Amino acid sequence: MTNEEYQQAVEWLFVQAPNYQIEGKKAYKPGLENITKLCEFFGNPQEKIRTVHIGGTNGKGSTSNLLASVLQEAGYKTGLYNSPHLIDFTERIKINGRNCSREFVYGFIQKLKSLPTDIRPSFFEFTTVMAFEYFYQNNVDVAIIEVGLGGRLDSTNIIRPEVSAITNVALDHQNILGDTVEAIAMEKAGIIKNQTPVICGDENPAVKAIVEQKAMQMDAPLIDATLISTNLTSDLAGNYQKKNIKVTLALVEELRKIGYHIQPEHLETGMMNVQRNTGFTGRWFIFSDNPLTVCDTAHNQAGLTEVFSQLNSMERHKHIVLGFVNDKKIDEVLRILPQNATYYFVKPDIERGRNPLEYRDMLESAKINYRIFQNVQEGYNAALQNVRPEEMIFIGGSNFVVGDFLQKNLQK
Fold it and tell me: Where is 306: in which H helix or E strand?
C-alpha cells in the first residue's frame, strides 16, 4: 500500500459514507439498528473487548485521554477511540498513544465495499466498528470509547462497558439533541447501562436530577464526581481540566473495585504525561512560547466561556483567530468575547465552515477590532505579523480551525 493509495481510500470513505463532521445534520444517522447490523457483519468485535464509555458535551475527549494515560502508566494495553481527528484520520483510533496503522485502515475500508446492500453506514458508524475491530485484533486490555454525539442514539452506545461517565451537559447540537439542557441531558443519560456504575461530573442540579433518575431506572450505581476533592494536576493546562480530573479519579476508583491495579503513582504520572502518553493535543495547547500561541478546540458557549475566562485572566493583549461551523449560534459567542483583543475571523476549510462575511453585521454590532480572512492560515499569518513580544495569539472556535492550523504549522 502506497501513501497515495491510503489517501485515496480515506477520501473515498469521506465521499461514500455520510459524514456529520463535514455535512452536518443531513449526514447524522441516529439509532442503533445500522451499527448493530454492521457489528454483526464483522463478528461483533465490541463484545470481545472490555470498555469504558465516556460522554458529555465538553470534556469527554480530555477525560478519555486522562484515563488512558493513567491506565497506560499502570501497565494496561489501552485502546482509545476519539473524534474528530485534527490532522490525520488514524488519530481517531489509538493503542497506548500510537495511531492505528494506515495499512489496517486501508484494508478495512476495502471491506466496506463488500457490505450487504441493506447496511449503509454513516462515516462515524464505520469508523466506530473499525475501532472495535482494531482493538480486538490487537488484544487490548481495555478500550476507552468516547461518545460521538449525544449518547442514547450514538453508534458507540452498542457497547456494554464496565463503567460509564457523563462529564457535563450544555447546549450544543440543539438541532439534533434538543433545545434545552434538560432535553440534552436525557440524551446523554442514554448511555447508562443496567447495573453499571456511572460517573456524573456536572454541577447543574437539573442535570444531576435527570442522570440520577436514569441511574435509578437502570439500577446503576451513581457517583457524583463534583464532590471529589483533589490537588492532582495535569499537563493538560486549561483551568477547566480540574473538573475532568475529578471525573477521571472517580472512573479510576470504580475500575479499582472490579480488579484493575492502579496505584497512586500511576495516577500522578499518568495525569502529568497525557500528551506524551496519548498524543492528545488541541486543549489549551501551547504551540509556541515566542510569541505565546495557544489553541483550543472549545466550540460551544459553555466551552468557550471557560476558555475565554482563562484568556481574560491573562493581562496581555490578545490576537484571537476564530472560526465557526454553520450550526453555531455566533451571536451568543460574540457576547462573551474576551476584552483587550484584536480579532481575526476565518473560515474553516470544510463544507460546514461558515464564511465570516455572512455574519459581518453581527461583528459590526459587537464593536470589536476585527478583520476577516477566507482561511485559517491567512488569519494566523496576519496575527503573527501584528503581535508584539509581550502579547499573545489564540486560535480556536472550532475543532476544524485548530485542525487547519496544526496541519499547516505543526511540522514547520
Answer: helix 301-312
Residue 16 in 3-state DSSP? helix
From residue 157, how far is each of 33, 160, 252, 274, 393 by CA, in Å? 11, 8, 21, 26, 39
Give yes or no for a contact between 290 and 98, defined as CB atoms under 8 angstroms apart: no
* 53-80 pLDDT tens trace: 999 988 999 999 999 999 999 999 999 9
- pLDDT one-digit tens code per residue, 350-395: 888 999 999 999 999 998 999 999 999 999 999 999 999 999 999 9
User: Virtual CA dihedral for 62, 175, 152, 114, nearest 10 degrees?
Assistant: -90
* Assigned C-alpha cell, 16: 461514500
Phi, psi at 387, each rounded to 5°: -70, 140
Strands 341-346 and 318-323, sheet pairing: parallel
Cα 247-252-257 angle, rounded to 5 deg: 130
* Burial zone of 216 (CB within 10 Å; 0-12 exposed, 13-18 middle, 19+ buried): exposed
What is the spatial distance between Cα 299 and Cα 227, in angstroms, rounded to a whole number? Answer: 27
C-alpha cell at 34: 445500522
Q: Are 66 and 271 in contact (CB under 8 A)?
A: yes
Helices 3-16 and 123-137, packing angle to 10 deg: 130
Q: Are strands 292-296 and 285-289 parallel, antiparallel or unpaired?
A: antiparallel
- Locus of grid cell 451513581: 222
Q: What is the pTM of this model?
A: 0.90
The pairing of beta strand 51-55 with beta strand 142-146: parallel
The amino acid that residue 168 corresponds to is: N
Measured between alpha carbons, how far is 287 from 281 in angstroms, rounded to an integer?
A: 10
